[in-house]
Structure formats: C-alpha cells, structure tokens
Amino acid sequence: MTHILLEKKGPVAIATVNRPKALNALNSEVLTDLDALIDAIQADETIRVLILTGSGEKAFVAGADIAEMARLSKAEAEAFGKHGNDVFRRLEQLAIPVIAAVNGYALGGGCELSMACDVRICSDTAVFGQPETGLGITPGFGGTQRLARLVGAGMAKQLIFSARNIKADEALRIGLVNAVYPPEELMPAAEKLAETIAKNAPIAVRASKKAINDGLEVPMDEAIVIEENLFGGCFETYDQQEGMGAFLEKRRHEPFQNR
Ligand code: DAK
After folding, report:
1. Do 165 and 149 lie in a common domain?
2. 4, 30 contact by CB (below 8 A)
3. What is the pLDDT of residues 27-52, one digit of tens each?
4. From atom 38 of ligand 1, which residue's Cα is the shortest distance away?
C-alpha cells in the first residue's frame, strides 16, 4: 500500500491515510490501497478493531481527488463512483468494528469514508461536510444514503443542498460523531475505545455489528429474526459459556478466546 500506513498494537490495527500533499484526498490509488487494507485486515484473525485516521494535523480526508475527477466522462465518473462505493461497502461490512478518528477536514469523500465506519470520534479541529453540490456534482461515495441514515433525511438534505461545512461541535449535536477531543487526546481516546471493545467476546461483538447493520436494511419483523439467529449462534461458543459461567461463579472471566 503506497498511501496507507498500517500499524498493529496488540489486537488493534491503526490505518492512516497518508497522502499529505493533497490533504489525504482519495484518488484511485488510495481507493485501491483501502481495498488492500481490507484484505490485510480480513487475513489477520488476531485483529479485533480497526482505527482509521488521516496523516498530518490538518485533514482526515479532504474529499475525493478533485484533480482526478475534474475531467471524467459520464462513464468514467460512474466507474470512479463504483470503485469508491465498492470499497466503502466492504469497509462497512468488515466483520470487526471500525472507528474513524477524524483529525481534521472530513469533506465529501472524507465525510463519506468516516460514515462507512461504525463509530466516529473527532478532534475539536475537525470539519465535516458534503460540498459536492457546490462543485456541480452529487455526493458519490454513499453520502446521500449514509448521511440521511445517520442524522435523518431533513438534516442530511439541508447539509447536502447547502454544501455547508460544519465544525466538530455541530457534528456532535446532530449525532454525526459520538465524541469530540482536543487533537492530542484523539488517538489515545480511539485506542482506549478500541481496547475496551477488543476485550469483549469477539464473536459476540462481530455478531452485534452484523445484527445492527443487516437489521437496519430490512423491516423490523425480519430484523428481529436476524438478531435471534445471531444471538442463538453465540450459545455454541466457548466464550458464552465462559462469560456466563464466570458471572454465576462470581469470578472474573478468563480472556475471551474467539471460539
Ligand atoms: N482533491 C484534490 N486535492 C485537494 C483536495 C481534494 N479534495 N483538497 C485539498 N487538496 C489539495 C489542494 O489542491 C492543495 O494542493 P497544492 O495546491 O498544494 O498542490 C493541498 O491539498 C492543500 O490544500 P489547500 O491549499 O487548499 O489547503 P487550505 O488549508 O487552504 O484548505 C481545504 C483546506 C480542505 C478547505 C481546501 O483544500 C478544500 O476546500 N479542499 C476541497 C474540499 C472539497 O471540496 N472536498 C470534496 C471533494 S468532492 C462521485 C464520486 C465521488 C464524489 C462525488 C461523486 N461520483 C463518481 C458520482 C466525491 C466528491 C468529493 O469528495
């Protein structure tokens, strides 16, 4: 991967989009690297949580690469959109939780990338927005869909139609991010959250993510069946027996074993 740095701290992987001269903007190479990142995470069963952030102090990801997009034909634009959408969908459907640690500008494709993650936390310097209509295009990496699902259709429409950027405090108020930190506290907070998640039963964490994601895509009657099946599956795991057994025996459970 040319534009993504990958570091492992025990069960936590930290991936940094690293294209600082363009504020980490997403060109085709970065999208291909994100695809390779997902392959690498899937291949390593010891990773329990992925943190995604941007290099430098200014940007998480300042959008899709405008220089690359500017001269695309309709067919090329559709192919570029599909490339991004396919990668973002893979990220969203990654079995393990993904935390976006948004350390600055998260505009256009950058905001969309953060929304393909499970949890967003940010620095108080972060700026979010979907500026596409001001560039003569629609959001193209899932922004119209994920923003509406996260903050409601009315707020998503207002942000997308107006192309107005919002600061961290407003992102917190509308529920786009879960928490805001001073810049130097962002990565420690992300790692602490990741470590907390990593200590819980991995199969149960993955099943919970799948239940929420899959359930949100179908009517409630089908969604609760998805939950029932995933819940039932946990009762065939060693970690369920150990977790509940330890509670009943009034002792600390042994570290979960992912089986
Ligand atoms: N693309 C390419 N280069 C970018 C970039 C971007 N999105 N954002 C910044 N850069 C580059 C700048 O051109 C500059 O490069 P040099 O001039 O130094 O070579 C360098 O990064 C530093 O940026 P600035 O000099 O502009 O830095 P400032 O601090 O002054 O301003 C800024 C920071 C983030 C406010 C500003 O750079 C800015 O407004 N950037 C553009 C933000 C933006 O509009 N992002 C949304 C992009 S549109 C679709 C597929 C995808 C999409 C849509 C449709 N389909 C196929 C349907 C997605 C669209 C987008 O994401």
Report:
1. yes
2. yes
3. 999 999 999 999 999 999 999 999 99
4. 62
In this predicted structure, what is the pLDDT of residue 7? Answer: 98
- Asked if 24 and 73 sit in the same domain, the reply is yes
CATH label of the domain that carries residue 67: 3.90.226.10
The residue to mutate among 66, 130, 135, 160, having the most atoms of ligand 1 within 8 angstroms of its beta carbon, is 66
Q: What angle do CA 34, 39, 44 make, to 5 degrees?
A: 125
- 64 CA from centroid of ligand 1 (Å): 7
* pTM of the predicted protein model: 0.98
What whole-number distance in Å separates Cα of residue 223 and Cα of residue 245? 29
Minimum CA distance residue for ligand 1 atom 15 = 22
Q: What is the mean pLDDT of each run of 10 residues along the chain (259 residues)?
A: 97 98 97 98 98 97 95 94 96 98 98 98 98 96 97 98 98 98 98 98 98 98 98 98 98 97
Tell me the CATH number at 244.
1.10.12.10
> How many angstroms is it from 61 CA to the middle of ligand 1?
9
For residue 189, the CA-to-ligand 1 centroid distance in Å is 27
- The answer on 233 and 128 residing in a single domain is no
Question: CB under 6 Å to ligand 1: residues?
Answer: 22-23, 25, 62-67, 77, 80-81, 84, 105, 107-109, 131-132, 135, 137, 139-141
Per-residue pLDDT tens for 3-33?
Answer: 999 999 999 999 999 999 999 999 999 999 9
Q: 220 and 131 in one domain?
A: no
